[in-house]
Structures are given as C-alpha cells and as structure tokens.
Amino acid sequence: MGKSLFIAEKPSVAQEFAKALKYNTVRRDGYVESDEAVVTWCVGHLVTMSYPEEYDPALKRWSLDTLPFIPKDWKYEVIEGVKKQFNVVSGLLNRPDIDTIYVCTDSGREGEYIYRLVEQEAHVEGKNRRRVWIDSQTEEEILRGIREAKDLSEYDALADAAYLRAKEDYLMGINFSRVLTLKYGNTISNYLKQSRNTVIAVGRVMTCVQGMIVKREREIRQFVETPFYRVLAKCSLAGSSFEAEWRAVEGSVYYASPKLYKENGFNKEEDAKALIELMSGQKFPYGTRQLVMPEPVSGVITGIEKKKENKSAPLLFNLAELQNECSRLFKISPDETLRITQELYEKKLVTYPRTDARVLSTAVAKEIHKNIGGLRNFQPAAGFAAEILESGSYKGIAKTKYTNDKQITDHYAIIPTGQTGAVKGLSAMAAKVYEAIVKRFLAIFYPPAVYQKVALVIKKDTESLFSSFKVLVSEGYLKVAGTGGSSAKASKNDDETEDVKCDAGMLEMLQKLKKGDIIPISEFFVKEGKTSPPKRYNSGSIILAMENAGQLIEDEELRAQIKGSGIGTSATRAEILKKLIDKGYIKLNNKTQIITPTLLGEMIYDVVAASIKYLLDPTLTASWEKGLTGVADATISCDEYLEKLEGFVTRRTLAVKQVNNQYMLRPYFDYAAAYYKQDS
Q1: Do residues 81 and 61 make contact, with C-beta atoms less than 8 angstroms apart?
Q2: How many C-beta neighbours within 10 Å does residue 397 have?
Q3: Is 355 helix (H, G, I), strand (E, B) or coil?
Q4: pLDDT digits (tens, 9 = 90+) for 279-329
Q5: Residue 501, Cβ neighbours under 10 Å: how many?
Q6: Strands 37-41 and 449-460, bridge-based pairing
Q7: What are the residue ranges of CATH 1.10.290.10 in the chain?
Q8: Domain 227-312+458-530 sits in CATH 2.70.20.10
Q9: Torsion angles phi and psi, residue 432, rounded to 5
Q10: pLDDT at residue 503 tops 90
C-alpha cells in the first residue's frame, strides 16, 4: 500500500495537518514524512503566468503594432524565488510510492488555483487526488475534512473559474495597460513635468474601484451647500418639556408650497418666521430665531401611537463586514484586518476568514454549543457563554435568520471556534478583533433589544407638530454586543427627525396621554440646517461598496440580475485597495482611514474615461464576476466565457489604438490639478 501526500498552502498550515494526523513524522527539506504519509507545502503561489516576452522576445518592447496580445496556448512558469520548494513538491507529487494526494490548500478559488498550477507544471498523472475542504484549522475540523474529502474532479468547475479569473486579469492588465501607456503615458508625463513616460496601470477591478473613489471626490467638490430652516416648538408635559417639529402635511396652509424645503422646513428664514407668527399670534422679535410666548398657547393631540419596537442582533461577520467594522472601531485598514483574521484562523481561534456569507450552515448550527462552550474560557465572554448554555437559547438557532444554507457558497460566516488556547499570545489589536468576532457571534443567541416608542401629533389650528420618543425597556442582545458589537449607525438625512430619548418617568407620562388632550406650547424657534455633501469613502465603506456593487447600478433589472456578485471577491478586495495605494493612485489616511484620490489617480481616471470608460462601470465589473460564478457553478462553459473575454479585450484595445484625443484631456487635467496646488 502506498503513502498519502498532504499538500497545504503554507508551512504553518502543513504543521497543523501534521499535528492533527498524529503520525510519527521526521523533518525533511521542504516536507515531513512518516511511515504512512508525507506532509508538504507551497509558499503561496509557486507558479505564475508567463510575460509576453516568453511567447516572443520581441514582445518585451511595448508597441502598438503587437497589440492586442491574445495567447492561444497559455504559458506558465515556476516563480524564480520559490523554485526550490516547487521542485520538492513536484518530486513528491510524482514519487512512485505516493498513490493518494490530499489537496489541503485554502478552501476557495485562489487555493484551488495554487494547487492546480503546481500539479499542471509537475505533470502529475495516475494519482488518486482528494480535495480537503475545511472551515477552520481545529484538529476536529481537519480530520473531518480529510475523512470527507471528495475526488478533486468535483472541483474542476471551481478550478476553471480560477484559471479564467487569472486570464481575465492578465489580458486586461497586459493589453489595456500597454495600449493606454503608449497612447497617453507621455501626455501625463508632460503635464506633470516628468522625464520618464508614465506607466498607466489598469485592471478589471482596480480601475473600477479607483473610479468610485474619484467620482465621490468630484461629487463632494461639486456639492453646493443649501441652508434650510425648520420650525420647532417647546411643549410642556407635567413639569417637563419636549420639542416638537412642524411639518407641512395635508391641511397646512403651506402644503405643497414652493417655499418649502421638503416637507419639514423652508428655503428662507423669513418664511419660517411667518409660520411661527401664524401659529402664535405674536410678532417675531427682530434679529432672533426664538419666540418665547407671554402666555402658552394650546395645542391639541390629534394623533398618538404607542408601540414596541424589536431590534434583533445583526447578522454575523463576513470578511467585508468585519473589515468595515474594524476600520470604524479600530481605524485599521482592510489589509491589516485580513492579516489579523488570517492569524486568528491559523491559531484555530476563528473559522475561515475569506467568506462572503453572514450566516451559519445547518450542520454547524446543530453543533454550535461546542463553539459557545469553549468561550467560557475567554474571560470577556465567559459570563455570556455560560448564560447562553444555561438558558438553552442556542437550541433554536437553526430555525432563525442566522442559519441559511442557501446563502452560503464555499464557507459560512466568521465565528469563533471555541478554542481559546492561543488568546494569551495575541497582540493588543488582534485581541480586539477577536473580541469583536466573539461578541458579534454571541449576540445572535440573545433576544432582540426592545424599545418602547410613542409618537405624537399635536395640532395648532391648521398646522401639525410632530414628536416621537424612544426608550430602551429590554437590552436583549445589546447586553453582549454593546456599542462595539453593533453596526455603525446610519447617517442621518438632512430632513430626518430623530427620536427623543426619554427616561422611564417621561415615558410613563406619555403613556397616559390620549387624543384630545391639551399640550401647552411655550416657545417657538427656528433651527437652521444645511444640506450635507456625500461622505468620502473610508477603508471599510469602500470594501462594503465593492461587495454591494449592484446597488450602484441604476437599471433595476440588471441590479437584480447581478445581486450577490460584487466587485472583486472577499479574498482580493483588501489587496486591490493596497495596490491602488502602492501605485500612488489613491491615499489612505492611517489615523482616520479616509480615502482620497491623488492627482495622478484623477488623471488616469480621465484617461480611462476618454478611452475605455467601461472599466469604470461597476455594471461591467460585477457582470464579469457573475460570469466567473457561473463558470464555477458549471452554468457557463469555459469556452463561452473566454470567447467573450477575448472579444471584449480585442475590440477595446483596437478602439484605443485608433483614437487621437490626447490634446482634449488638458482641461480635465487642469480641473483636477487645481485641487492639488498646495501639494506642489
């Protein structure tokens, strides 16, 4: 009987597999071996796609005459710096005494690609190949993955998608970057007074994200602040007071008036004061925005609504949500969040990080008490974990919104494994990220937070004043989540009326009110507001925007069609952002995590807009990603996808070769440069 070979993506993971297998292994150069098995590893990618000059040395020189470049037979090569380990792995894959190969690279598209390239270049034949698919690196999960490993052929469609993704990035990157550099690189260099020709790097995902950031910056610049004026009243209730806000509802003398700013304010301050004079019967004092009544006027309650509002715990973290939360709470970049979460995964503290799902699988939900039980050894969560187990609230989790097999593709949400042995060795920031994951997880086993809400409508003659109150009566999941475990509050709209926070005593008085009751009004005042510009992206919100690219698409049918297919993948979004920063196209403020474009980034945006504007369109980028998902699902053939890809690249490259619009870009460059003069 032959030996089994286990091949992991990196040495640390291989070590965990060797431990779990409990074989008496001996360390060799690039692998460990026992009487039963061999465990080896890649070091990330060992093989890559060859540059054009490997097809033809003449292609090393960039020339319009050689574009578009579309290989018919694709070439690959071993990466120079890792040849030694490739030779080790290749030798093991082909060793006569090895009859079964267990593929243990990361359980996702990229991990599949890493192994398939190695197997391809090692020319492996006649071996039994099994795919190990795991959600964490705990011993139990590793052994389950090995036990339930499927034939590698069942993942052929995923491998096809991985190959096509790489070909897509290659064809667009090589052809578009070369043709745009040759056409416009000198134009940019001359404008910036640089001696070297500017290389214009573009990519399917990268350029689209760059476009989103530049567009947002220009929206902010073009924004014109508009003041508006609200009318508020100070009302009395049993010795206490509260504010109520006027709205132009049906029956008001200002209903549908052109003087209004939406329904709850005026374009001009004098119109707001005229309304107050109408309601009060008093002349507004000159030069003030406040009218205190000599004697209170009476308002009548014409509407009262009392209801309880339940707010459930948010869904679990996927990578994008976690990156957004860590950017908000801890001011760390998505790249750093991914690095930390990968570390937590490799230390068996959390499940697989590169996931798009925010729910549990049914299978995991059935065993979830194990994850909770282990957290009794994690001091910040020990009391909550014990309380959940004692109450038995975990038992029904499979029947809630937090468990849904249909919303899971490769992996379920990021959750703690329950193993806490490595917690003490974590850095301060890693400990914070881990605690955030733990709290988000435990929160789903608590009941909703319950608020008591009371909404009033107070009538004064023809006009209506509105006030709403909200008090927390049962903290529910907030007990564990607190402010750190909940999602960031949605930004308040310019015309939005906030709930008034009140105490139990005030709530009790409000509860006693009924229609027809008189409410004294002692004061009216004008409150100036201003419209707000769009917010700049931060490192977290841009990740979420990439994940939810479909929301940026105006066409409703198309938006629905690509739902779930964002820009990039959970595994690549942080890397894309980092690439844009490294190339100098965008800037990241490390303290605030706010993202802004650079002058060079804006100029390249204008170049792309004038040549291959499709690259700036989330519709296109998301549809390509959806196509890759279709290949992975075996609903779209490789040939069909590749034909469309090659056709798109060819048409767009030829179109750029034919244009001569460089001189037309000067005004666009001037527009952008005006905002960067302080940097020169």
Answers
A1: no
A2: 21
A3: coil
A4: 999 999 888 999 999 999 999 999 999 999 999 999 999 999 999 999 999
A5: 10
A6: unpaired
A7: 332-443
A8: yes
A9: -65, -45
A10: no
**At 331, which helix (H) or strand (E)?**
none
Sheet of 150-151, strand order: 26-28, 31-33, 37-41, 3-8, 98-104, 128-131, 150-151
Instruction: Identify the CA nearest to 547 among candidates 386, 318, 330.
Output: 318
Task: Please give the Cα distance from 545 to 241 (Å, whole number).
Answer: 42
DSSP state of 52: G
Q: What is the mean pLDDT of the chain?
A: 92
CA distance 572 to 595: 18
∠ CA 469-472-476, rounded to 5°: 150
Question: DSSP strand E in 461-513: where?
Answer: 463-474, 500-501
pLDDT at residue 637 tops 80: yes
CB within 8 Å of 17: residues ≥ 6 apart:
6, 8, 39, 104, 142
- Each residue's pLDDT tens digit, 639-665: 999 999 999 999 999 999 999 999 999
Distance CA 471, CA 492 (A): 19
Quote the pTM value: 0.88
CA-CA distances (angstroms) from residue 11 to 7, 30, 234, 514, 594?
A: 10, 9, 68, 71, 36
- Among candidate residues 288, 283, 251, 254, the one with its CA nearest the CA of residue 269: 288
All CATH 1.10.460.10 domain ranges of the chain, comma separated, are 163-222+535-679
**CATH 2.70.20.10 domain residues, the chain:** 227-312+458-530
Domain 163-222+535-679 has CATH 3.10.450.50: no
* CATH class for the domain made up of 3-148: alpha beta
Q: How far is CA 672 from CA 311, 567, 675, in A?
A: 45, 26, 6
**What is the SS3 assignment for 295?**
strand
> What is the Cα–Cα distance from 595 to 542, expressed in whole angstroms?
9
What is the dotted CATH code of the domain comprising 332-443?
1.10.290.10
Domain with CATH 3.40.50.140 in the chain: 3-148
Q: Is the dihedral of CA 238, 239, 245, 246 positive or negative?
A: positive
471: Cβ contacts below 8 Å, ≥ 6 apart: 451, 452, 501, 502, 503, 504, 506, 507
Distance CA 245, CA 499 (A): 11
| H or E element in which residue 39 lies | strand 37-41
- The length of the chain, given as a count of residues: 680
